[in-house]
Structures are given as C-alpha cells and as structure tokens.
C-alpha cells in the first residue's frame, strides 16, 4: 500500500497509536504515521472562541511498542498581580 493510498484508520507496524486523556481532547485516538517521525514529547492545544483563548498542554507517556498516552498537564497557578503596589 502506498503512502498516498488514503487516510483510513489502518495502522502500519511502525505507526504510533496515541491516546489523549483529560481536557478537551479526552478520548481522542490518533494514529501517527511512522513517516512523520517520533511523537512530540508535549502537545499544546489552543481553543479559540469568543472569549479568551484557552491553552491545554499534554505530556507524552510512552508505552511498550508503538503506543503512547498524552495526559493533560495540570494548570499552573500564577499569583495574581496586585496593581495597587508600585514596582
């Protein structure tokens, strides 16, 4: 089967199967073709809508074989800046 044969869900022996856990991508399964190289260690998902943009980061946990799980990174709590205090 050639690389241009289609976009079906067939998974080759060297392709990676990636599962997303948590956040807006929860439950998504992605098959990453081997020709695209190794899966990235971190993926950033940005949701744009009428309000402020919402950013989620997923970190890769590799599993045996050609599989991995991207888990939602916990949010970073930043202290609110006090505008009443001069710098």
Q: What do these coordinates show?
A:
This protein is mainly β and 87 residues long. It has no helices and 5 strands. It has a domain at 16-72. A hairpin with a 7-residue loop joins β1 and β2 (29-32). It is elongated.
Task: Give the arrangement of secondary structure elements.
Blueprint: E1 16-21, E2 29-32, E3 42-47, E4 54-63, E5 67-72
Parallel strand pairs: 1-5
Antiparallel strand pairs: 1-2, 3-4, 4-5
Characteristics of this structure?
87 residues; mainly beta; five-stranded mixed beta sheet; 0% helix; disordered N terminus
Strand segment tally: 5
> What is the global morphology?
elongated
Q: Which stretches of 5+ consecutive residues score pLDDT under 50?
A: 1-7
N- to C-terminal separation?
64 Å
Order of helices and strands: EEEEE
Helix content: under 10%
| Largest β-sheet summary | 5 strands, mixed
The portion of residues forming beta strands comes to 35-45%
Instruction: Trace the largest sheet across and list its strands.
Output: 2-1-5-4-3
CA-based gyration radius: 18 Å
By helix and strand content, what is the structural category?
mainly beta
**Average pLDDT, to the nearest integer?**
85
Number of continuous helical runs: 0
Task: Give a nutshell description of this structure.
The protein is mainly β. The chain has strands spanning 16-21, 29-32, 42-47, 54-63, 67-72.
């Amino acid at each position: 089967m050639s690389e241009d044969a289609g976009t079906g869900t067939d998974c080759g022996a060297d392709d990676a199967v990636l599962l997303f856990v948590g956040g807006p991508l929860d439950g998504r399964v992605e098959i990453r073709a081997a020709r695209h190289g190794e899966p990235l260690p971190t993926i950033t998902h940005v949701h744009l809508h009428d309000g402020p943009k919402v950013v989620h980061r997923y970190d890769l946990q590799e599993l045996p074989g050609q599989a991995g799980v991207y888990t939602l990174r916990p949010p970073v709590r930043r202290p609110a800046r006090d505008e009443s205090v001069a710098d």
